[in-house]
Amino acid sequence: MTPDELGGWLDENQITTVRTEGASLDGLVLGKHLNRGKFERSLPLGPALSDLVFSWDIGGAPQLGWWADFRQPALGDVHQRPDLSTIVASPNRPGMANVLVDHTTIDGTPLPVCPRVVLRGVVDQLAVRGLTALGAFELEFMLFRESYDDARRAHYRNLSPIGTPLPVGYTTHNAHYVAGFMDEVVRRLDGLGIAWEAWSDEAAPGQVELNFVPADPLTAADNVFRAKQVVKEVALDRGESATFMAKATGEFGSGMHIHHSLRRDDKPAFFDGQSADHRSADMRHWIGGLVATMPGAVSILAPTVNSYRRMVGFAAAPTTPTWGEENKSTALRVISRSEKLARIEHRVASADVNVYLALAVILAGGLAGIDGAIEPPPEHGGLAWGEPPGFAQLPSSISLAADELEHDKLLTEVLGDAFVDYWLHGRRWEWLMFHTGGGDADATSVTDWELNRYFELV
Could you tell me the pTM of the whole model? Predict the structure, then answer.
Protein backbone atom coordinates (compact mmCIF):
# COMPACT_ATOMS: atom_id res chain seq x y z
CA MET A 1 0.00 0.00 0.00
CA THR A 2 1.32 3.45 -0.91
CA PRO A 3 0.93 6.47 1.38
CA ASP A 4 -1.48 7.93 -1.18
CA GLU A 5 -3.72 4.86 -0.86
CA LEU A 6 -3.68 4.83 2.94
CA GLY A 7 -6.48 7.35 3.55
CA GLY A 8 -8.92 5.52 1.31
CA TRP A 9 -8.11 2.19 2.95
CA LEU A 10 -8.61 3.63 6.44
CA ASP A 11 -11.96 5.08 5.34
CA GLU A 12 -13.08 1.84 3.70
CA ASN A 13 -12.28 -0.17 6.84
CA GLN A 14 -13.67 2.49 9.22
CA ILE A 15 -10.38 2.66 11.11
CA THR A 16 -10.15 5.06 14.04
CA THR A 17 -7.12 3.55 15.82
CA VAL A 18 -3.84 2.12 14.53
CA ARG A 19 -1.66 -0.16 16.64
CA THR A 20 2.04 -0.24 15.76
CA GLU A 21 3.87 -3.53 16.33
CA GLY A 22 7.64 -3.87 16.44
CA ALA A 23 9.96 -6.50 17.88
CA SER A 24 12.43 -5.98 20.70
CA LEU A 25 15.62 -8.03 20.78
CA ASP A 26 13.85 -10.45 23.12
CA GLY A 27 10.90 -10.71 20.73
CA LEU A 28 8.49 -8.64 22.83
CA VAL A 29 5.85 -6.75 20.84
CA LEU A 30 6.46 -3.01 21.22
CA GLY A 31 4.10 -0.33 20.03
CA LYS A 32 1.48 2.32 20.56
CA HIS A 33 -2.24 2.71 19.93
CA LEU A 34 -2.56 5.86 17.82
CA ASN A 35 -5.54 7.95 16.89
CA ARG A 36 -5.93 7.75 13.11
CA GLY A 37 -5.03 11.40 12.64
CA LYS A 38 -1.93 11.10 14.80
CA PHE A 39 -0.86 7.99 12.87
CA GLU A 40 -1.18 9.73 9.51
CA ARG A 41 0.69 12.81 10.73
CA SER A 42 3.51 10.65 12.08
CA LEU A 43 4.38 9.23 8.66
CA PRO A 44 6.80 8.34 7.24
CA LEU A 45 8.91 7.92 10.40
CA GLY A 46 6.04 6.80 12.61
CA PRO A 47 5.68 7.31 16.36
CA ALA A 48 8.62 7.73 18.71
CA LEU A 49 9.53 5.45 21.61
CA SER A 50 12.22 5.87 24.23
CA ASP A 51 15.40 4.09 23.15
CA LEU A 52 15.14 2.29 26.47
CA VAL A 53 13.16 -0.34 24.56
CA PHE A 54 16.53 -1.53 23.23
CA SER A 55 18.39 -1.05 26.49
CA TRP A 56 16.33 -2.80 29.12
CA ASP A 57 16.19 -6.52 29.64
CA ILE A 58 13.13 -8.75 29.53
CA GLY A 59 12.69 -8.21 33.27
CA GLY A 60 12.63 -4.41 32.88
CA ALA A 61 16.10 -3.65 34.29
CA PRO A 62 18.00 -0.95 32.34
CA GLN A 63 21.25 -2.14 30.79
CA LEU A 64 23.56 0.83 31.31
CA GLY A 65 26.88 -0.99 31.37
CA TRP A 66 27.33 -0.70 27.60
CA TRP A 67 26.17 1.61 24.87
CA ALA A 68 25.94 1.64 21.07
CA ASP A 69 26.36 4.21 18.32
CA PHE A 70 22.62 4.35 17.60
CA ARG A 71 21.86 5.44 21.16
CA GLN A 72 22.00 9.09 22.11
CA PRO A 73 24.39 10.14 24.91
CA ALA A 74 21.42 10.58 27.21
CA LEU A 75 18.11 8.76 26.96
CA GLY A 76 16.61 9.61 23.59
CA ASP A 77 14.06 8.34 21.11
CA VAL A 78 13.82 5.81 18.32
CA HIS A 79 11.06 5.75 15.72
CA GLN A 80 8.72 2.98 14.60
CA ARG A 81 8.60 3.38 10.83
CA PRO A 82 5.41 1.64 9.60
CA ASP A 83 5.64 -0.88 6.77
CA LEU A 84 2.34 -0.01 5.09
CA SER A 85 2.38 -3.30 3.15
CA THR A 86 1.60 -5.00 6.48
CA ILE A 87 -1.35 -2.90 7.62
CA VAL A 88 -4.48 -4.95 8.26
CA ALA A 89 -7.82 -4.42 9.98
CA SER A 90 -8.03 -6.20 13.32
CA PRO A 91 -10.33 -9.25 13.13
CA ASN A 92 -11.44 -8.89 16.76
CA ARG A 93 -11.31 -5.15 17.53
CA PRO A 94 -13.59 -3.17 15.19
CA GLY A 95 -12.14 0.16 14.16
CA MET A 96 -8.52 -0.83 14.83
CA ALA A 97 -5.75 -1.59 12.34
CA ASN A 98 -2.43 -3.28 13.06
CA VAL A 99 0.79 -2.39 11.26
CA LEU A 100 4.29 -3.83 11.58
CA VAL A 101 7.23 -1.45 11.90
CA ASP A 102 10.98 -1.17 11.53
CA HIS A 103 12.87 0.67 14.25
CA THR A 104 15.01 3.62 13.18
CA THR A 105 17.02 6.43 14.70
CA ILE A 106 15.42 9.87 14.95
CA ASP A 107 16.81 10.72 11.47
CA GLY A 108 15.34 7.55 9.92
CA THR A 109 18.48 5.39 9.83
CA PRO A 110 17.54 1.72 10.37
CA LEU A 111 18.67 0.44 13.77
CA PRO A 112 21.31 -2.29 13.37
CA VAL A 113 19.72 -4.11 16.34
CA CYS A 114 16.13 -4.03 15.05
CA PRO A 115 15.30 -7.71 14.43
CA ARG A 116 13.28 -6.98 11.29
CA VAL A 117 16.14 -4.86 9.93
CA VAL A 118 18.65 -7.63 10.65
CA LEU A 119 16.60 -10.21 8.75
CA ARG A 120 16.04 -7.88 5.81
CA GLY A 121 19.79 -7.28 5.64
CA VAL A 122 20.50 -11.01 5.29
CA VAL A 123 17.78 -11.38 2.63
CA ASP A 124 19.39 -8.52 0.70
CA GLN A 125 22.76 -10.30 0.83
CA LEU A 126 21.15 -13.42 -0.62
CA ALA A 127 19.63 -11.35 -3.42
CA VAL A 128 23.03 -9.94 -4.39
CA ARG A 129 24.10 -13.54 -5.07
CA GLY A 130 20.99 -14.28 -7.11
CA LEU A 131 19.42 -16.31 -4.30
CA THR A 132 16.01 -16.20 -2.65
CA ALA A 133 14.70 -18.24 0.27
CA LEU A 134 11.42 -19.55 1.60
CA GLY A 135 10.78 -20.19 5.28
CA ALA A 136 8.08 -22.00 7.23
CA PHE A 137 7.76 -22.22 11.01
CA GLU A 138 6.40 -24.91 13.32
CA LEU A 139 5.41 -23.14 16.53
CA GLU A 140 4.85 -25.00 19.81
CA PHE A 141 3.33 -23.63 23.00
CA MET A 142 1.74 -24.76 26.27
CA LEU A 143 -1.88 -24.05 27.17
CA PHE A 144 -3.27 -24.02 30.74
CA ARG A 145 -6.75 -23.68 32.24
CA GLU A 146 -5.70 -20.98 34.71
CA SER A 147 -5.89 -17.34 33.68
CA TYR A 148 -2.67 -15.34 33.64
CA ASP A 149 -3.74 -13.68 36.90
CA ASP A 150 -4.34 -17.04 38.57
CA ALA A 151 -1.12 -18.47 37.16
CA ARG A 152 0.77 -15.48 38.55
CA ARG A 153 -0.75 -15.97 41.98
CA ALA A 154 0.35 -19.62 41.84
CA HIS A 155 3.87 -18.53 40.81
CA TYR A 156 3.28 -20.51 37.61
CA ARG A 157 3.57 -23.79 39.49
CA ASN A 158 1.21 -26.78 39.45
CA LEU A 159 -0.94 -25.38 36.67
CA SER A 160 -3.56 -27.47 34.85
CA PRO A 161 -2.63 -28.29 31.26
CA ILE A 162 -5.64 -28.42 28.96
CA GLY A 163 -6.05 -32.08 28.03
CA THR A 164 -5.13 -35.39 29.57
CA PRO A 165 -2.06 -35.57 31.83
CA LEU A 166 -0.38 -38.21 29.63
CA PRO A 167 2.55 -37.24 27.35
CA VAL A 168 1.08 -38.72 24.16
CA GLY A 169 1.05 -36.63 20.97
CA TYR A 170 -1.26 -36.26 17.98
CA THR A 171 -4.36 -37.55 19.78
CA THR A 172 -7.65 -36.14 18.55
CA HIS A 173 -8.93 -36.67 22.10
CA ASN A 174 -6.53 -34.05 23.45
CA ALA A 175 -7.01 -31.88 20.39
CA HIS A 176 -10.73 -31.72 21.16
CA TYR A 177 -9.97 -30.16 24.55
CA VAL A 178 -8.20 -27.24 22.85
CA ALA A 179 -10.44 -27.06 19.77
CA GLY A 180 -12.40 -24.05 21.03
CA PHE A 181 -9.20 -22.17 21.77
CA MET A 182 -7.64 -23.02 18.42
CA ASP A 183 -10.83 -22.27 16.49
CA GLU A 184 -10.59 -18.70 17.73
CA VAL A 185 -6.84 -18.54 17.06
CA VAL A 186 -7.18 -19.60 13.43
CA ARG A 187 -10.21 -17.34 12.94
CA ARG A 188 -8.05 -14.38 13.92
CA LEU A 189 -5.12 -15.63 11.83
CA ASP A 190 -7.42 -15.83 8.81
CA GLY A 191 -8.63 -12.32 9.55
CA LEU A 192 -5.05 -11.05 9.63
CA GLY A 193 -4.25 -12.79 6.34
CA ILE A 194 -1.82 -15.22 7.97
CA ALA A 195 -1.73 -18.50 6.05
CA TRP A 196 -1.56 -21.55 8.30
CA GLU A 197 -1.42 -25.22 7.35
CA ALA A 198 -2.31 -27.30 10.39
CA TRP A 199 -2.41 -27.53 14.15
CA SER A 200 -2.18 -30.60 16.38
CA ASP A 201 -1.93 -31.89 19.90
CA GLU A 202 1.75 -32.32 20.77
CA ALA A 203 3.68 -34.63 23.08
CA ALA A 204 3.47 -32.79 26.41
CA PRO A 205 0.16 -32.35 28.24
CA GLY A 206 -1.37 -29.06 27.14
CA GLN A 207 1.09 -28.63 24.27
CA VAL A 208 -0.06 -27.48 20.82
CA GLU A 209 1.83 -27.18 17.54
CA LEU A 210 0.77 -24.66 14.88
CA ASN A 211 2.26 -24.89 11.36
CA PHE A 212 2.47 -22.07 8.82
CA VAL A 213 2.51 -21.93 5.01
CA PRO A 214 5.95 -21.26 3.47
CA ALA A 215 6.61 -17.64 2.51
CA ASP A 216 9.48 -15.28 1.81
CA PRO A 217 11.62 -14.84 4.95
CA LEU A 218 10.24 -11.47 6.06
CA THR A 219 6.61 -12.49 5.54
CA ALA A 220 7.19 -15.84 7.24
CA ALA A 221 8.69 -14.16 10.31
CA ASP A 222 6.02 -11.43 10.33
CA ASN A 223 3.30 -14.07 10.34
CA VAL A 224 4.70 -15.97 13.32
CA PHE A 225 5.48 -12.77 15.21
CA ARG A 226 1.84 -11.80 14.89
CA ALA A 227 0.58 -15.33 15.55
CA LYS A 228 2.34 -15.51 18.91
CA GLN A 229 0.54 -12.32 19.89
CA VAL A 230 -2.77 -13.80 18.73
CA VAL A 231 -2.25 -16.90 20.89
CA LYS A 232 -1.62 -14.79 23.98
CA GLU A 233 -4.56 -12.48 23.32
CA VAL A 234 -6.96 -15.39 22.80
CA ALA A 235 -5.74 -16.87 26.09
CA LEU A 236 -6.38 -13.54 27.82
CA ASP A 237 -9.85 -13.22 26.31
CA ARG A 238 -10.81 -16.78 27.33
CA GLY A 239 -9.45 -16.59 30.88
CA GLU A 240 -6.72 -19.15 30.15
CA SER A 241 -2.95 -18.85 29.80
CA ALA A 242 -0.44 -19.79 27.13
CA THR A 243 3.34 -19.69 27.21
CA PHE A 244 6.14 -20.00 24.70
CA MET A 245 8.70 -20.84 27.36
CA ALA A 246 11.10 -23.48 26.11
CA LYS A 247 10.51 -25.48 29.30
CA ALA A 248 7.59 -24.48 31.51
CA THR A 249 6.91 -27.87 33.11
CA GLY A 250 8.69 -31.15 33.70
CA GLU A 251 7.42 -32.54 30.37
CA PHE A 252 8.78 -32.12 26.86
CA GLY A 253 9.87 -28.58 26.06
CA SER A 254 8.52 -26.38 23.27
CA GLY A 255 10.53 -25.80 20.13
CA MET A 256 10.36 -23.75 16.95
CA HIS A 257 11.28 -25.91 13.97
CA ILE A 258 12.21 -23.80 10.96
CA HIS A 259 11.91 -25.27 7.45
CA HIS A 260 13.64 -23.42 4.67
CA SER A 261 14.56 -23.84 1.03
CA LEU A 262 16.64 -21.92 -1.48
CA ARG A 263 16.05 -20.81 -5.07
CA ARG A 264 18.61 -19.72 -7.65
CA ASP A 265 17.41 -18.10 -10.87
CA ASP A 266 13.87 -18.92 -9.73
CA LYS A 267 14.61 -22.64 -9.67
CA PRO A 268 14.99 -24.92 -6.61
CA ALA A 269 18.64 -24.71 -5.62
CA PHE A 270 18.77 -27.62 -3.17
CA PHE A 271 17.75 -30.37 -5.61
CA ASP A 272 19.91 -32.08 -8.22
CA GLY A 273 18.17 -34.85 -10.13
CA GLN A 274 21.49 -36.02 -11.58
CA SER A 275 23.03 -36.63 -8.16
CA ALA A 276 22.64 -40.04 -6.50
CA ASP A 277 21.40 -38.42 -3.29
CA HIS A 278 19.53 -35.62 -5.13
CA ARG A 279 21.51 -33.02 -3.20
CA SER A 280 22.96 -30.13 -5.16
CA ALA A 281 26.30 -28.49 -4.47
CA ASP A 282 24.34 -25.52 -3.07
CA MET A 283 22.60 -27.82 -0.59
CA ARG A 284 25.86 -29.48 0.43
CA HIS A 285 27.59 -26.19 1.04
CA TRP A 286 24.52 -24.74 2.77
CA ILE A 287 24.49 -27.69 5.19
CA GLY A 288 28.24 -27.26 5.66
CA GLY A 289 27.75 -23.62 6.61
CA LEU A 290 24.87 -24.39 8.98
CA VAL A 291 26.88 -27.04 10.82
CA ALA A 292 30.04 -24.92 10.96
CA THR A 293 28.19 -21.95 12.45
CA MET A 294 25.73 -23.90 14.59
CA PRO A 295 27.51 -23.52 17.97
CA GLY A 296 27.46 -19.73 17.59
CA ALA A 297 23.94 -19.70 16.14
CA VAL A 298 22.66 -21.41 19.30
CA SER A 299 23.08 -18.10 21.15
CA ILE A 300 20.31 -16.63 18.98
CA LEU A 301 18.25 -19.82 18.57
CA ALA A 302 18.20 -20.47 22.34
CA PRO A 303 18.11 -16.93 23.75
CA THR A 304 17.13 -17.40 27.41
CA VAL A 305 18.44 -19.24 30.43
CA ASN A 306 15.36 -21.43 30.20
CA SER A 307 16.01 -22.34 26.55
CA TYR A 308 18.69 -24.82 27.59
CA ARG A 309 16.34 -26.79 29.86
CA ARG A 310 14.80 -28.15 26.65
CA MET A 311 18.10 -29.30 25.12
CA VAL A 312 18.49 -32.72 26.71
CA GLY A 313 18.99 -36.08 25.04
CA PHE A 314 16.07 -38.27 23.94
CA ALA A 315 13.54 -35.44 24.54
CA ALA A 316 12.99 -34.33 20.92
CA ALA A 317 15.42 -31.36 21.04
CA PRO A 318 18.80 -31.77 19.25
CA THR A 319 21.96 -31.70 21.33
CA THR A 320 24.62 -32.22 18.64
CA PRO A 321 25.72 -30.25 15.52
CA THR A 322 24.61 -33.02 13.16
CA TRP A 323 22.55 -33.52 10.02
CA GLY A 324 20.81 -36.43 8.37
CA GLU A 325 18.26 -37.33 5.74
CA GLU A 326 14.81 -37.54 7.36
CA ASN A 327 16.49 -37.76 10.78
CA LYS A 328 14.60 -35.95 13.53
CA SER A 329 17.25 -36.63 16.16
CA THR A 330 19.79 -34.46 14.34
CA ALA A 331 19.90 -30.67 14.41
CA LEU A 332 19.27 -30.53 10.67
CA ARG A 333 16.69 -32.81 9.10
CA VAL A 334 17.39 -32.87 5.38
CA ILE A 335 14.65 -33.72 2.86
CA SER A 336 15.89 -34.30 -0.68
CA ARG A 337 13.75 -37.08 -2.12
CA SER A 338 12.02 -34.82 -4.65
CA GLU A 339 12.42 -31.39 -6.21
CA LYS A 340 9.11 -30.21 -4.76
CA LEU A 341 9.97 -31.24 -1.18
CA ALA A 342 13.70 -30.41 -1.11
CA ARG A 343 14.36 -28.38 2.02
CA ILE A 344 16.08 -28.36 5.41
CA GLU A 345 14.31 -28.44 8.76
CA HIS A 346 16.40 -26.64 11.39
CA ARG A 347 15.33 -28.13 14.74
CA VAL A 348 17.50 -26.27 17.26
CA ALA A 349 15.41 -23.17 18.02
CA SER A 350 13.28 -23.03 21.14
CA ALA A 351 9.78 -21.56 21.19
CA ASP A 352 11.02 -18.48 23.06
CA VAL A 353 13.18 -17.43 20.10
CA ASN A 354 12.92 -14.10 18.29
CA VAL A 355 11.57 -15.35 14.95
CA TYR A 356 13.25 -12.63 12.88
CA LEU A 357 16.66 -13.29 14.37
CA ALA A 358 16.21 -17.07 14.18
CA LEU A 359 15.64 -17.02 10.45
CA ALA A 360 18.37 -14.41 10.00
CA VAL A 361 21.04 -16.51 11.71
CA ILE A 362 20.01 -19.66 9.82
CA LEU A 363 20.17 -17.91 6.45
CA ALA A 364 23.46 -16.29 7.48
CA GLY A 365 25.00 -19.68 8.26
CA GLY A 366 23.85 -21.15 4.97
CA LEU A 367 25.08 -18.12 3.05
CA ALA A 368 28.50 -18.42 4.68
CA GLY A 369 28.58 -22.06 3.59
CA ILE A 370 27.88 -21.19 -0.04
CA ASP A 371 30.35 -18.29 -0.06
CA GLY A 372 33.08 -20.49 1.40
CA ALA A 373 32.08 -23.72 -0.39
CA ILE A 374 32.08 -25.41 3.03
CA GLU A 375 31.67 -29.16 2.81
CA PRO A 376 29.50 -30.74 5.53
CA PRO A 377 30.74 -33.37 7.96
CA PRO A 378 29.58 -36.94 7.35
CA GLU A 379 25.85 -37.52 7.51
CA HIS A 380 24.60 -38.93 10.82
CA GLY A 381 22.68 -42.10 10.09
CA GLY A 382 21.49 -43.12 13.55
CA LEU A 383 20.20 -41.47 16.71
CA ALA A 384 22.17 -38.32 17.45
CA TRP A 385 21.60 -38.63 21.20
CA GLY A 386 23.64 -40.73 23.59
CA GLU A 387 26.90 -40.42 21.67
CA PRO A 388 30.08 -41.36 23.56
CA PRO A 389 32.28 -38.81 25.35
CA GLY A 390 34.22 -36.66 22.93
CA PHE A 391 31.43 -36.38 20.38
CA ALA A 392 30.71 -32.72 19.57
CA GLN A 393 27.84 -31.22 21.57
CA LEU A 394 25.95 -27.97 21.21
CA PRO A 395 26.52 -25.29 23.89
CA SER A 396 24.68 -26.15 27.08
CA SER A 397 24.17 -22.67 28.56
CA ILE A 398 23.46 -19.11 27.51
CA SER A 399 27.00 -18.02 28.40
CA LEU A 400 28.76 -20.85 26.55
CA ALA A 401 26.67 -20.13 23.46
CA ALA A 402 27.59 -16.44 23.67
CA ASP A 403 31.26 -17.40 23.76
CA GLU A 404 30.78 -19.46 20.59
CA LEU A 405 29.05 -16.60 18.79
CA GLU A 406 31.75 -14.14 19.84
CA HIS A 407 34.34 -16.25 18.03
CA ASP A 408 32.21 -16.98 14.95
CA LYS A 409 33.52 -14.62 12.28
CA LEU A 410 31.34 -16.14 9.55
CA LEU A 411 28.09 -15.20 11.29
CA THR A 412 29.40 -11.81 12.39
CA GLU A 413 30.36 -10.92 8.82
CA VAL A 414 26.79 -11.52 7.61
CA LEU A 415 24.83 -10.26 10.63
CA GLY A 416 27.07 -7.25 11.31
CA ASP A 417 29.43 -6.33 14.14
CA ALA A 418 27.01 -3.80 15.66
CA PHE A 419 24.23 -6.35 16.07
CA VAL A 420 26.40 -9.23 17.27
CA ASP A 421 28.25 -7.10 19.82
CA TYR A 422 25.01 -5.73 21.28
CA TRP A 423 23.39 -9.17 21.33
CA LEU A 424 26.34 -10.68 23.20
CA HIS A 425 26.15 -8.01 25.88
CA GLY A 426 22.46 -8.80 26.31
CA ARG A 427 22.96 -12.57 26.65
CA ARG A 428 25.75 -12.17 29.18
CA TRP A 429 23.60 -9.71 31.08
CA GLU A 430 20.80 -12.29 31.15
CA TRP A 431 23.18 -14.86 32.65
CA LEU A 432 24.30 -12.28 35.23
CA MET A 433 20.68 -11.52 36.15
CA PHE A 434 20.03 -15.21 36.69
CA HIS A 435 23.00 -15.52 39.04
CA THR A 436 22.37 -12.33 40.97
CA GLY A 437 18.57 -12.19 40.87
CA GLY A 438 17.67 -15.40 42.66
CA GLY A 439 18.32 -18.10 40.06
CA ASP A 440 19.87 -21.39 41.13
CA ALA A 441 22.84 -22.26 38.91
CA ASP A 442 22.87 -25.84 40.23
CA ALA A 443 19.18 -26.50 39.57
CA THR A 444 18.41 -29.37 37.22
CA SER A 445 14.79 -28.33 36.66
CA VAL A 446 12.95 -25.10 35.94
CA THR A 447 13.46 -22.50 38.66
CA ASP A 448 11.02 -19.93 40.04
CA TRP A 449 13.26 -17.20 38.62
CA GLU A 450 12.73 -18.55 35.08
CA LEU A 451 8.97 -18.93 35.49
CA ASN A 452 8.55 -15.44 36.91
CA ARG A 453 10.70 -13.90 34.19
CA TYR A 454 9.62 -15.75 31.07
CA PHE A 455 6.19 -17.35 31.43
CA GLU A 456 4.14 -14.36 30.29
CA LEU A 457 6.60 -12.43 28.14
CA VAL A 458 8.56 -14.68 25.75
Answer: 0.97
